[in-house]
Amino acid sequence: MNTNDKLWSKDFICITLCNLFIYLVFYYLLVTLPIYIIEHIAGGEIIAGMITTVFLFIAIIVRTLTPLWISRFGNKSILYAGLIVYLVSSVLYLFPTTGIGFLVVRMLHGIGFGLATATTGEFLTDIIPQSRKGEGIGFYTLSLNLAVVFGPFFGINAVRNLEKPYFFGIVILFSFLSIIMCVFLSNTEREQQPENPGVNSRDVFEKSAVRISIICAAFAIVYSSILSFIPVYALDIGLLHVSSYFFIVFAIVTIISRPFTGKWMDVYGANVIMYPSIILFALGILLLSLSYNSAIFLIAAALIGLGWGTLFPTFQTLAISKALPEKRGMAMATFLSIFELGIGIGSYIVGVVISIYSFQTVYLHGSVLVVMGGVLYWLLVHRKEA
User: Fold this and answer.
1) Which residue in 164, 279, 341, 348 has the fewest CB atoms around it within 10 Å?
2) Same domain for 127 and 96?
3) pLDDT tens digits for range 36-80
């Protein structure tokens, strides 16, 4: 293999670990901050419902503008700025005593998150060799899968057992570690040549990434029902004692499969990976709707982990693969913004549907939506490439 095709460079390891710590904070607070606010703030139920929406809304706006700032100031400067804002806002969580105070800090935190995640994506596209793009993004995405498992795990234990300074102290620690990882990054070519003629103020979205990002957002609507409601569903069906193992099984299956699926995509193309992953994801959601014991519940977790855990990096790779080299960071930002919009919309829709019907109804129809998403992919991507 050509030495230029080296994947596991110092920069790749550092940016992946940086991303891990960023998302550990994200998922730690995603699960626990609403619980904390409801228990400690008067009228917290209303504020708790706004916490995630405000955070993601601000992050999406900031992320769409970040490529413009990167083109002017360079990757590393913007990454430092984002991580410092992320750390400062993590410290500020120690001080609010009202719901409005938490919302203000949450907005600031969203700014840091938007800057940091857009810039790590920019670094990633510069670091990974083109011949190993699928494999590299697959391993990078593992940092998100690990954060999905360990963020809520640490958070749920902390919110029940730790006082406020120690509860938010964990957030501060993870944010600080993300900055430490940034210190070891080399300057990329984008940093050394910050004036990027391919980016201008009228072009904050990468058009080549929009179509595949919208399709991924359709799947994300279903995924949001897993991310936000699995513990509540487990309680509803009497399986709360095994709910903590759901994401562990999810992560183990994803980690085991990732080295193979990333390489297969690089060799055989996205379609060979896409359709089996869609089928597995749909079967996992369907099985989840039928769960009545621990075995079925955890088998569903394995199928969902194998399906979604492969779908997401495949969509991510497709989103940046057609962009020009100088616009791949913008393509990554476009993809993440639209994906998170799907998560936000999905969480709201699922919450409304659950309040009227049942979890079984949500997951049963969710499996149908996954299949419809596969049809949408065939119509808008596969067929047009044939």
Assistant:
1) 164
2) yes
3) 877 777 655 567 667 877 888 899 889 888 878 887 888 888 999
Instruction: Judge whether 311 and 274 are in contact, CB under 8 Å.
Output: yes
Enumerate long-range contacts of 380-384, CB under 8 Å, 24 or more apart. Answer: 380/211, 380/215, 381/211, 381/212, 381/215, 381/318, 382/271, 382/274
Average pLDDT (87-115) is: 92
| Angstrom distance (rounded) from CA 213 to CA 236 | 33
193 and 227 share one domain: no
Phi and psi for 348 in degrees, rounded to 5? -65, -45
**Helix (H) / strand (E) containing 248:** helix 240-268
CATH of the domain at 256: 1.20.1250.20
Return d(Cα 110, Cα 62) in angstroms, integer.
8
Q: Are residues 263 and 327 in the same domain?
A: yes
Residue 52 shares a structural domain with residue 187 = yes
CB 227 within 8 A of CB 343: yes
Q: What CA–CA distances, in Å, run from 260 to 230, 300, 306?
A: 28, 21, 12
Domain of residue 294: give its range. 205-386
